[in-house]
Write a structure and sequence with these properties.
By secondary structure, the protein is α+β, with helices and mostly antiparallel strands. It has 6 helices and 22 strands. Helix 3 packs parallel to helix 4. The chain is rod-shaped.
């Protein structure tokens, strides 16, 4: 057994060599529950942790090692210890990870580590921990991303070590594409990532650092139908004019969406009492990004028309439209010389149309001159 660093400790002196070796290893790699010299070493990761603890940088990636590849893990750690710590492989990698390994053989091998010294020129690498890299931003949020709209996000790697960032986006149809990654070259070692979804549905965004998944990767992102730009939508037509529309008479206006992208059109027509949905209207696709709305107001008075595109109100809304009362010829009375019989040639004849006081109509004054 080796000469211990705490040889003068009374408690250590009273321990068996096995207890002293186990205690030393536990102090070296406290993050692992090492309690024996058999089962605790079966996946090879504890060997990597011990080697890296004795010489930080020899096995910096041991935490990411695949426990399903125990022989490879043990071989990597033991070879590094042999080459750079002077710890010969008195037991084979295939033996140390075996469930029925001889405990004394493992102890003999591990007892060389307390006196191991790092040789000059060792290929020490920065510690790598992909799970300490993190991603944040719109492009990995569960909702809020749209078809044919850029979905950006940031990957921060300051605590993850040295490695390459790779991002893959898989759409609902199984198509997988690599996203564009740009290093920001800042103190937090961040990377700007962007992709443009082509279809709606659930997308899987995989973020890898040094070939390993970062924290929470892969991310599930729901891509929705793109909403257009309401500011580029215009509307015009008699149905939006301030005056000139009459109750019970159909009118219309056209909506122009060229250059505004994709979006649903919603029309709200509010009557003089402030109620919506009291006026029937119809929306027709006329082609070439033109939509016609036809409606027939049933009451006179001031109406407000609101037009939305993609959930946003378009410019100039609301339109205020004064609806005049429907014409009723029976509510008018004509009088004057022009309405009487026996009008002579070249005689000026006045004609006056008078509405009932409770009616709203247009007054017309005509001067009639009979011809030969």
């Amino acid at each position: 057994m080796p000469v211990w660093e705490n040889e003068g400790d009374e408690e250590v002196k009273n321990q068996t060599p096995k207890q002293r070796l186990l205690g030393w290893i536990q102090n070296k790699i406290p993050q692992l529950p090492i309690t024996n010299f058999s089962q605790n070493w079966h996946d090879g990761k504890a060997l990597g942790a011990l080697v890296d603890s004795c010489a930080p940088g020899l096995c910096p990636d041991w935490e990411t090692w695949d426990p399903k590849r125990p022989v490879d893990n043990a071989r990597e750690a033991m070879q590094q210890a042999d080459d750079w710590l002077g710890v010969p492989q008195v037991i084979a990698p295939e033996e140390i990870i075996h469930p029925d390994v001889d405990e004394h053989s493992v102890m003999t091998y591990l007892s060389q580590f307390p006196k191991a010294k790092l040789k000059p020129g060792a290929p020490l690498k920065p510690k790598l921990n992909p799970k300490k890299a993190r991603a944040y931003g719109k492009g990995i949020e569960p909702t809020g991303n749209m078809v044919k709209k850029t979905s950006p996000f940031t990957v921060e790697t300051i605590s993850a070590g040295q490695g390459e960032v790779l991002v893959y986006v898989e759409d609902p149809e199984g198509t997988r594409e690599e996203a564009k990654v740009t290093a920001n070259n800042d103190k937090n070692k961040t990377y700007y990532v962007e992709y443009v979804p082509k279809v709606t549905g659930v997308h899987k965004v995989t973020v890898l650092f040094a070939g390993q998944h970062i924290l929470k990767s892969p991310f599930e992102v729901i891509v929705e139908k793109a909403q257009g730009d309401a500011s580029k939508v215009t509307a015009k037509g008699p149905g939006l004019e301030a005056i000139g529309n009459i109750a019970n008479k159909p009118t219309y206006f056209d909506i122009y969406t060229a250059g505004a992208g994709v979006g649903d059109i919603t029309i709200e027509l509010i009557d003089p009492q402030g109620r919506n949905n009291t006026v029937d209207l119809a929306l027709e696709d006329k082609g070439n990004c033109v939509y016609r709305c036809t409606y027939k107001p049933v009451k006179s008075g001031s109406h407000n028309v609101n037009i939305s595109f993609g959930g946003e109100i378009i410019p100039k809304c609301p339109y205020t439209v004064a609806i005049g009362e429907a014409c009723n010829p029976n509510a008018c009375r004509a009088s004057g010389r022009g309405a009487a019989q026996g009008v002579r040639i070249r005689e000026t004849a006045d004609l006056r149309s008078t509405p009932k006081l409770e009616e709203l109509a247009t007054f017309m004054f005509l001067s009639r001159v009979p011809k030969d």
